[in-house]
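Structure request: Glycoside hydrolase family 43 protein, Baudoinia panamericana.
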Amino acid sequence: ALDANFADPSIWYKNGTWYAFATNNAAGILQQSNTSAAYEYGASNVQLATSPDFVNWTLLDARSDPLPVVGDWVTQGLTSSFPRIPRANVWAPAIIQRPTDNKYVLYYSANMNNGTPAGWNHPIPHCIGAAVSRGQDPAGPYDPLDDPLACPILQGGAIDAAGFQNTNGTLYVVYKVDGNNIGNGGLCGNTVNPIVPTPLMLQKMRSDGVTTDGNPVQILDRIAADGPLVEAPALVRSSEGIYFLFYSSGCTRSPSYDVKYATATHVNGPYVRASSPLLRTGSWGLSAPG
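Returned structure:
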C-alpha cells in the first residue's frame, strides 16, 4: 500500500508496471528524512507513484514530475510560505493513450490564471487542461496545451477529468462542473438554498485527445439524496455493451462521501442510477470512500 496523502488517484498499467497519478498537496514532503537531501516532493504539479505488483508502491519526488510545466492559462509559480508548493494547485490528473501515435494525454484541473473567486469565501475556480507525452512512456514528461479544455467559470469551473475510449476508438472526456465552488454555504459549500448544480459532463474528443468535437453533453447531476454534489466521474464499458458511470457524492472527508454508479446502453445516456451506493462509510472498513 502507499502510505501517503495521495488524493484523487488514477491508475495505468503498462509492461509490468502500475502507474498512479494524484493531486498534489505537498503530502510527499512529510515522508522526507531530515538527514536526506530535500527533493521537494510537494513541488511536483502531479504526484506519481509506481508499483510492480499493485501492493508495494514507490512515491516519486519532483524530479519525476510528469507535468513539470503547466499551461499558460494556469496560475504560475510557487507559494511563498513553507512548504513551497505550486500555486497551480493541480487536482485529479488522469491519463489515456491516444490511438493516433500511442502517445499519452494527461488531463488535469488547475487554478485559472487571474481567476476571480465568486466571493470572499470562495476559492479560485479550477479549469481543465490537457498535456501530451513527449514519448510513449506513461510517466511522461508531458507538455501542456496553452489553453484550457473546459472552463465554465460562470458555473464554478471544472474539475475531475477522466478519459474514456469507446470500442470504435472514439475518445471522450468526462468531468464535473464545479458548481459547489460558487455555492451559498453549508456542507462542501452547497447545502444552503439555492443549491447550485454540479453536473457531470461528457465531451467527445477528436483522435488527438486534446481537441474537442462538438459541445459537451450533461449525463448526470446531483439530486437531494446526493447531498451537496456529485463528482469524480469515471466511465467503463462492459463486455455486454453496458456503460457504467461511477461517481462520488456527499461531501469530501464527511462520512456521507460515497461511491455510486449509473448505467446506460449508449455512451451519451440516459444513465439510470443504481438503487444503492457501491461503497459507503463502513463498507470493507472504509471511511468516506468517495
